[in-house]
Amino acid sequence: MQKDAQGLPLTAASAEAAAAYDHSLNGFLLYRADTSQRLKAALQLDPESPMLVLLKGSFAMLASNAAFVPAAREAAALAGTLAALGTAREQAHVAALAAWAEDDMPRALAAWTGILADNPHDLLALRLHHYNAFWRGRPDMMLAAVQGVLPRWGADQPGYHNVLACQAFANEECGNYLVAEAAGRAAVGINPADLWATHAVAHVMEMQGRRGEGIAWTSGLEQHWEGGNNLTHHLWWHRALFHLERGETEQVLALYDSRFRNLESPVTQVMPDLAIDMQNAISMLFRLKLQGVDAGARWVELADKAEARIGDCQQGFTLPHWMMALASTGRFEAAERMLAALREHSRSNSAGSAATIGLYALPICEAVLRHARGDFASAVAVMRPALGGMHALGGSHAQQDVLEQLFLDAAMQGGLTEDARMLLERVAGRHPVPPERRAGYRRAAQSILH
């Protein structure tokens, strides 16, 4: 029995294997592009360490790709065998991964919550809980988890900045911007390469309309992003959002081509259809499209990848984005096939996400297609019931914003003034910056609210 960097017991063959586990976990926590290589080397040292096998399964699930789920299930089964004589914490991690791979997120989240209650220094449990609560639209759970462990951490303990980064993003999503920014800046002060903390502060600045500061914040820390994974793309996407709000569309497209959708990037080439990358690219092009900016052929490769993933419902929030790519390239037959696949999934008794897909992803995807076909009133009608609960698909306020812009554009083009007014009032109540100061809402707000 060894111990990890946080002092938790770890079933590992040697101190060297335990150090390799720490190195792999740290790669995950800091979004390093070589994390998989770190884990591969660690498993060569000790292929029978339950926590290393659990990391392998967790990384498969983090891809948000249905093709990788069998590998996660296999890892959970193997880890279960290996952990039989291990610690209770390791066995609880096995239960969490098994539930996650079976799409039983209430059970998985409960397992991680239980681990943190007994082991508040378990950074893997904290980050996996944080990630999965986020992608189910539960910032309240994110905040409860980090607030539960914070009193039992000290600033001198290894990895403390990771806890602060989670505190920052959870508070931002709950609207506690002062606490969020302070925690994020503190984390970056400890480790400037903490991309999650950098990201949390960027979110605060986006929500508060601090566009110049946001550009300066991300630009000033970019030197620390070398070796980062796809989260660096998301940070560049955030910078592009700041430029978009300032009407600087040339800079937006330049960042698209050279940064967050650079198809020549080694990080992109490893997994060209990764969910977060697809969300970044598609949502930005769709925002530009609603503002009358032609993105040209950029849509084509996105639509190719979206069409290839029809039937994959692993992550609900990605689904409307795939539909945007299909609809924006006129692939209506493929779009109809995608809707049929969503309807089938929503009727499944074995998928824990079925109800959420049926209630929210399906009608939003239908609205995207109807909007593309010019059937604006129908798009509004089918999407209206989903507005209040679509946060359950996951995604931040900044990411969900593209869905609200879709509804508003359909309402405005359909002459449905009251629906447009409702959306503007909804946005005004949820976002600190008034619609009149936001690029995607300005024209409608000036027309309707004044």
Relevant terms:
450 residues, two-stranded antiparallel ribbon, globular
Q: What is the succession of H and E elements?
A: EEHHHHHHHHHHHHHHHHHHHHHHHH
> How much helix is in the residues?
55-70%
Structural class: mainly alpha
Main sheet overview: 2 strands, antiparallel
H/I helix tally = 24
The overall strand count is 2
Proportion of β residues? under 5%
Multimerization state: single chain
Please give the order of strands in the largest beta sheet.
Answer: 1-2
Question: CA-to-CA gap between the ends?
Answer: 68 Å
User: Which regions contain 5 or more consecutive residues with pLDDT less than 50?
Assistant: none
Overall geometric form: globular
Summed up:
With 450 residues, the chain is an all-alpha fold. It is built from 24 helices and two strands.
Describe this structure in words.
The protein has 24 helices and 2 strands. It is mainly alpha-helical. The chain has a two-stranded antiparallel sheet with strand order 1-2. A hairpin with a 5-residue loop joins strand 1 and strand 2. Helix 16 crosses helix 18, helix 19 runs antiparallel to helix 20 and helix 20 runs antiparallel to helix 21. The model has no long low-confidence stretch (mean pLDDT 97).
Write the layout of secondary structure elements.
Elements lengths: L1 E2 L5 E2 L4 H15 L5 H11 L4 H13 L6 H14 L5 H14 L3 H14 L4 H12 L4 H11 L10 H14 L3 H14 L4 H13 L3 H11 L9 H15 L3 H12 L5 H5 L4 H16 L7 H11 L9 H11 L3 H15 L7 H19 L3 H8 L13 H17 L3 H14 L11 H7 L2
Helix pairs in contact: 1-2, 2-3, 3-4, 3-5, 4-5, 5-6, 6-7, 7-8, 7-9, 8-9, 9-10, 9-11, 10-11, 11-12, 11-13, 12-13, 13-14, 13-16, 14-16, 16-18, 16-22, 17-18, 18-20, 19-20, 20-21, 20-22, 21-22, 22-23
